[in-house]
Amino acid sequence: MDVFNTTDAIAKIKAGPQGPSIGAFFDFDGTLIDGYSVAEYFKERIRNRTISVKELVTGVTAPFKGIANEAEFTLLFKDLIAEWAGNSEEEVRALWQKLFIERIARHMFHEAYSLVQAHMRAGHTVAIASSATRYQIEPLATEYGIEHILATELEIKRGIVNGKLHGEPLWGKNKAAAVRRFAKTQKISLSKSYGYANGDEDIDFLSTVGLATAVNPQKELLLKASAEAWPVLTFDPRKRAPFKAFAGTVGAYSAMTATMLAGMAYNRFYKEPRRAADMVGTIGSELGLALAGIKVNILNEHNLWRVRPAVFILNHQSKLDFFIFYNIIRRELTGVVKKEAENVPVIGPFLRMAEMSFLDRSNSKKAIDALQPAVDRLKRGLSVAIAPEGTRSYTPKVGRFKKGAFHIAMQAGVPIVPVVIRNAGELMWREDATMRAGTVDICVLDPIDVSQWDPANLDDNIAAVRQLFVDTLADWPTETKTMNDSSLVN
Questions:
Q1: Contact 413, 453 (CB under 8 A)
Q2: How many CB atoms lie within 10 A of CB 347?
Q3: Which of 420, 414, 425, 382 minimizes the C-alpha distance to 401?
Q4: C-alpha angle 232-10-483 in degrees, rounded to nearest 5
Q5: How far apart are CA 443 and CA 472, in angstroms?
Q6: What are phi and psi of 477, to 5 degrees?
Q7: What is the SS3 assignment for 384?
Q8: Helices 89-99 and 37-47: crossing angle, nearest 10°?
Q9: What is the rounded distance in angstroms from the CA atom of residue 450 to the CA atom of residue 441?
Q10: What is the pLDDT of residues 174-191, one digit of tens each?
């Protein structure tokens, strides 16, 4: 049995056979996400007080039943989906999309995401193979860009779920059979393909591929992996943060709040808002991150200082980004933030003192008007930080870039400086309230001269900048490099 890490696994994928004839099959619950998605469904039903007694009993006792074969799993699964009868397919799909956004996305294994992306870069045919329904799987598959889903299917009559199964659940031997059928239709060589799973019931599934990997394996799967010399991957748990993380988070916010109050008091007496804002950014962010146990590792830090003022753009993953950006840019910084932040106690007054622009995302006309002050501040010598995605992402995937940051830079005649954040979402997920200790990796790319950009080619240039983020995240630099000034082709 070979215990190795995600970096080793990605290196083997990169060095191995490429192309669509190679499959990469991922189990869902316990492999792509930590735990079971259906647990979030039961929690939602309990919170809404819509769960039936039968459903509650089924949900509570299911983990303790020790399912031995496909027939037993089928009986249990039928009990679980019986309550869905009478709902439209779109209602079921919308429910699981909501659960993904609010609950399930926080449990995704970031290591598994990296593996999926490595297989995609290798041109492999990537599929999720799971006993879950496709409605549970689709939101994550869409975010990851996975086209193929092998799942337990439900009967749909005239757009309505009738509470019955269409075929057999993909559990145990049934999942293995589904993978073989799919491979045949897609002309995939299973002997050269990859499989990833965590459960004892997935032994048959993993045995269908030539390159099986046990992920956080259960007892029987671990024994099988040892006997077959399958690699074993252990992913960091994504469940509730430890008490230490809660304490660190309280410390971080307390430090930043205290520093903001001190900065605003200083400004009240000395009428120096810029010095006060820089003090908060430098001291508050440094102290806050330290109390949370978060370190920042920066590659190409010199690019933060090569050209000022500038528009610094970042891929927006986490509430941590506020701490991170003040920590690395430190002085003469303003930004563009969502309108809702203006009315938050302490934070709102500080952001106004720091000359932030408030963006009303519900009104495009007001959003455009809100960007003009940022142009004026750039011309005064202040730098601007902005997330061109517009909102925090649910996964490490880089979202579509909006045009605002680029218009600002072009109007002010300053460069764009891309700042790529690799793993802030692992330490604090989009909807999470807790910061986990760890190291945030940052790579600052070369400044990009936009002064000669042709507005007719703006979309293409913005797409090229976004691709820089995608490429850097896919192939993270290992050391600081001295780079020359760069500009994109108009």
A1: no
A2: 18
A3: 420
A4: 145
A5: 8
A6: -60, 150
A7: strand
A8: 100
A9: 26
A10: 999 999 999 999 999 999
Is the pLDDT assigned to residue 64 strictly greater than 70?
no
Which run of H or of E encompasses 232? strand 231-233
Buried b (16+ CB within 10 A) or exposed e, 23-58: bbbbbbbbbbbbebbbbbbbebbeeeeebeeebeeb
Query: Cα separation of 490 and 453, whole Å?
Result: 5
Rounded to whole angstroms, the Cα distance separating 402 from 407 reads 10
DSSP code at position 445: P
Q: Which amino acid is at 288?
A: G
Say what the pLDDT of residue 479 is.
Answer: 67
Distance CA 384, CA 374 (A): 7
**How buried is residue 343: exposed, middle or buried, by Cβ count under 10 Å (0-12/13-18/19+)?**
exposed
Spatial CA neighbour of 295 closest among 437, 152, 408: 437
3-state SS track over 334-356:
EEEEEHHHHHCCCHHHHHHHCCC
Match 């001291």 to its residue by tokens.
283
* Tokens representing residue 137 in the block: 């799987």
Following CA atoms 20, 24, 28, 29 in sequence, which dihedral angle do they give, to the nearest 10 degrees?
A: 180
Nearest by Cα to 161 from 78, 73, 79, 92: 92
CA angle 326, 329, 334 (to 5 degrees): 65
**With 60 as the cut, is the pLDDT of residue 3 above it?**
no
Q: Before 309, cis peptide (omega within 30)? A: yes
